[in-house]
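Pipeline run #58 for the internal structure catalog. This entry was flagged by the ingest filter as a single-chain record with no existing model, so it goes straight to prediction. Upstream metadata was stripped on purpose; only the residue string is passed forward. Reviewer on rotation: M.T. Logging verbosity set to normal.
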Amino acid sequence: MLSREVRHAARAAVVAVVMSCVCTQSWAWGREGHRIVADVAQHFLTPAAQAQIAELLAADSKSKQTLADVAPWADEYRQDHPETAGWHFVDIPGDATKFDRDRDCPRSSDAKSPWRDCVTDRILYFEGRLGDTSLSPKERAEALKFLVHLIGDIHQPFHALGDDRGGNNITVVFLGSPQCESYHCNLHGVWDDSMIRERGLSEAKYTDLLLKEIAGNHWERLSGGEPTLWANLSHQYAVNAKVPNGALLQHDYYDEEIKVVDSQLALAGLRLAHVLNRILAPETPSPQQVPLPKPVAPAAKN
């Protein structure tokens, strides 16, 4: 029988390995990035949409919550629901020119579902659930929380690149350090957190910066579109920003790519607001408006 000391040592080794895996795994804009996306969106919501959101969030929680408060929720939910992990990204190959649903979006484990397990499909899925007033307020609130998060995710460029696990497998040295907070720096994590953190701005000041960028660049005109378009644009940014394993990311890389980080955070907020306004406070549609097509179940193959 193993001694108590040996058993404790073995257990400690297992914990160390598990924690190492957790710390080096990067899945999305970090908590701050997701909150900033929601803060930007808040400034472009109509009063009617704001009222609907407040009602739904009140039905979902006993404490008062804002969009920013619930923005990171889907990452927390995934810890106990690993089947939702694929909903946060889409694996477009680096040498592909655009998203291909059959190639890049895996079928759901639910054979009866027309919805697939990638971020482009799941944004449309939760748009439908948020707008479905036959669902309970709590169910619609869950759809809202997923939408806030996933629209942020699809604007993180490395959530639209399949190569090297979206950059998670690319080890880098960021601004002279191989360590990024609690994990060894990898390219995906640098885009999730490190470049945002390097700004040295509070959440409120970063949001103010983006609002000025939106106004100065007239980015409101880019607030429309749909998930496939957003994924294709993110993919191109990722392809351009990808570096070899072991690369040294110096200030010239940061100075160039932080512009992309800022614009993607701002556009994610604008597009989130546009989606929520359309669903929760729709205007009378014009004859020219055509609803986005919903995915259909694939035809059975012989």
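catalog note: The two ends are 57 Å apart (CA to CA).
catalog note: Confidence is low (pLDDT under 50) at residues 1-26, 284-302.
status: ready for reviewer M.T.
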